[in-house]
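Lab notebook, bench 4. The sequencing result for the construct came back, and we need a structural model before the next group meeting so we can plan mutations. Quick request posted to the team channel:

Model the 3D structure of this chain.
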Amino acid sequence: MEGAREFIPYGRQWIERRDIDAVVEVLESDWLTTGPQVAAFEEALAEFCGVPHAIAVSSGTAALHLAMLSLGVGPGDEVIVPAMTFVATANAVVFTGATPVFADICEDTLLIDPDSVSSLLSSRTKGIVAVDYGGHPCDYEALQNIASRHGLFLVSDACHSLGGYYKGRPVGTLADVTVFSFHPVKMITTGEGGALVCADSGLAKRARRLRNHGIDLDFRERAGRNTWEYDMVELGFNYRITDFQCALGISQLSRLKEWVVRRNEIASRYRSAFCDMKGITPLVSYSHVVNAYHLFVVKLIGAEERLEFFLAMRRRGIGVNVHYKPVHLHSFYRERFGGRKGQCPVAEKAYHSIVSLPIYPQMSAQEVDRVIGAAAESLEEIGVTS
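Done. Here's the predicted structure in token form:
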């Protein structure tokens, strides 16, 4: 493998001096947590998404969990989730005592298939979680129609798609609750961190309470009432995020629009290069969306070729990865919920051919061209282009 400094990862954060200064300013202040930067970040995020409420939390997984709880998911309920996602999407359902039901995906985008969702509805179905895989918003019109007809909630797991659009509407306005992650490889970072956004004030109030142990009054409310009294009215969690994380988030959010533009420029360069390259096919990205391109995923011919391509690219210092093994095939879901091969055939077939190529805003044109060159060399090495 080439030297570590020349290694191109599949994703990475972009930290500038202004980000560092914003964090240091908070570290030198009186508030490290539950202070003014948390509220300021929530306000900025809500404004960016075009919704009234944002609740910042400690991770995207925490946001998913609070979304489920705030929507009343519990034992005996079923929630439909896509098979092609990170395990946290389904785990958040399990945390509540409910059962995740795995829907298959569309072959061209790897997004949840509305027809599969419809086929899985039962008297126990409480809601649907749509995952904007790779940054491409799902078919929210079709999913909302299903949810409305059957009295279900719709949650958008938009951990890949902050800054994206669907038919002119920003991600964050497309479902009852939208969830984001601020992990370092995501659209913006707070180190670890996440958020949920929504229009429902009652739901937002409950999510804030659950974020803070289930306590009815936070410290600002107690200070405003000149009292120390509070009551824990339900079992909650410590899912709080710090002020210095939120200061970083505010600084990062100010550059998100230009970063989405840059991700699309890189994706366009990849698509142009791969359109005539035998053996490698990018996922479809539809014209009615703005794809945030957290990932740039391509399909190879099959499992054997995918493995050989993966290893050949890694030897060339290109940090390709695979996203994701279908959740129902993980050991926990096999043993606990009877996950089995053949349950979601489109997702299972896709898993054996997909590879994620590097894409992040700080990539230079030379690095993008290096990835393209390495892909051509790797395909030739493994005999796919012959």
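The chain has two domains: 17-253, 256-381.
Will bring this to the meeting.
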